[in-house]
């Protein structure tokens, strides 16, 4: 316990207080899961000003737990005497461990064997793990759709709606009807009393699968997806190796595309919150618990209203324009759901807004002027272009022949090599 409650370190100069705190925060000595997953440093300046630097690996404390911890520390800092002890009720993480240990693991593996049977990675990820230095891409888009309002309209949780819209957006990029990607679970939906206030590594990475059927209405598709997602949330504690073994799928490649709906609990749940905010400020909180993947898409409510979506990827997966279009497509899909109340079939989806139509017309009139920077070294011979497209989207339709025969880029390339 002494290691977790360190002595206060005096700092001689007030000017050095923030600099020393920053140096500790940036140090690579802390936060390693097997050597020092948790490190706390408390610095005190000559005036009595305090800086606390808290470094934790998400294998020990996830972002949800950090939000709870921040609230409790702020409340305890503001309280005094017996009120300090009364402000720290905490169910133990051992409850989660005992619940998971008692589950029927064979039944859970049987679910994953059926659910993931035949699941494949997204085709656009085929070059994601090549040992080449690629330009990193970060994109953000703010949509106007209020997911909470839409959730009431279609009787579906906001996180489910977001993940479904993401699957539809990925379908537009890949031409795949069956979309599988990694999913970060908060782990806070398990049937454990007080789990929403437990501090510990409840977070886990699992696999989400969405089979899209154009004849289904949005409402029907969401209901089917929610039924599967309920099972995924309950059984998602199994590791990716367990999933791969149960379903005979390449789980590590599937989770090269990773998604999350990020809606952390409010920290304003204490009677001392107003007082605490006056004396406890955490603007230096910089870490998070998001995993590193070739394609990471995160969505959640924006403080100003609407939905904020961000994507992190690199040029081996998609261009920055494609990343921006993916985020815009997701927002337009959500807006279409809102307009139609979820009653239209998926085949009626219309996601092109005026700005996108203008961009398409501009490109069609002068495509050479819209060439992307990463396309400057692309091959010019036809067979080279086809081979490059095989690597990117092997199962996308390349040719529509007579008698309704379709050839994918993979099939076309195979015939050319015969």
Automatic annotation (TrEMBL):
What Pfam family does this protein match (any one)? Condensation
Annotated Gene Ontology MF terms? catalytic activity; phosphopantetheine binding
Q: Which GO terms describe its cellular component?
A: cytoplasm
Q: Transmembrane as a keyword?
A: no
Query: What does the UniProt keyword field contain?
Result: Multifunctional enzyme
Q: Which PANTHER family match?
A: FATTY ACID SYNTHASE, NONRIBOSOMAL PEPTIDE SYNTHETASE
What is the protein name for this chain?
Condensation domain-containing protein
Organism classification: Eukaryota, Fungi, Dikarya, Basidiomycota, Ustilaginomycotina
